Amino acid sequence: MRIWYQLVSSETGMANFLRATQALCDGAALPGTRVEVRGTQQGALGDQFRLFWNYDVREIIDNALAIRQQGGYDAFVLANSLDPALVELREILDIPVVSFMEVCCFHACTMGERFGLVVPNEKMVPRYREIPIGYGLRDRLASVEYIEFSNIRGFDAVFTDTRAGDDCVEQILAASRKSIERGAEVVIPAGPSSTLLAQRGIFEVDGVPLLDCYRLLVKATEMVVAMKEMTGVHVSRKLLYQAPPEEYVRKVAEVRNIDALRSR
Hints:
The protein is α/β, with parallel strands linked by helices and 264 residues long. 45% of the residues lie in helices and 16% in strands. The chain has helices at 15-28, 50-70, 86-92, 100-108, 125-134, 162-181, 192-199, 213-231, 246-256; strands spanning 2-10, 34-40, 75-78, 97-99, 115-119, 141-146, 186-189, 204-205, 208-209.
């Protein structure tokens, strides 16, 4: 099984985070499962602002279209907690598309009645609130709390600088406790926070689980691929994820000159 595991973080600007996440995924994968953790060229640079975020989303879509054209992968994982381009990729890919927040939110619902999110900075709170509400989980969301990483790339230092890592962990735990006070029975640490906690073996606070999100994504993907192998089905083509007809794809490729949409 070969999995494309897509982060938004820059492969150069956040190399430490990518390496740490790759190590977690390698340890979680079954024998025979190859997880390829990928970043973007310039991502996670002010992506709390949706204007900048749109440029990262386009690169992710381009990566997925290249896989659609060339093949070679059994699943595409959106390993960014904002679930970028989820509907778009499920429309066009013939392999399972698995996403961070969707998996984590629904898994959290199997562990407790209400869950909370810990996100990188205050600006991101509204966007993160929208995501579980969009999944129909408004009543299961206890709160969205934030830590102080307005410069998302500042996260990269927490994997090499012990003092920075300690400070980040303290912030995550403090924000988690706020969420617990507001009724969370499970906490989802979004983004690099999850890798940092897992790397340090921290999986709960005050008796409340802190999800190990990136390894959870690996196991969820293995399950979805296995179910596709057994049943031949991985997505509904009714309504939301209905795929565009091939002739329409060819027409758009011609009109917009998009090579990645041309015939495989």
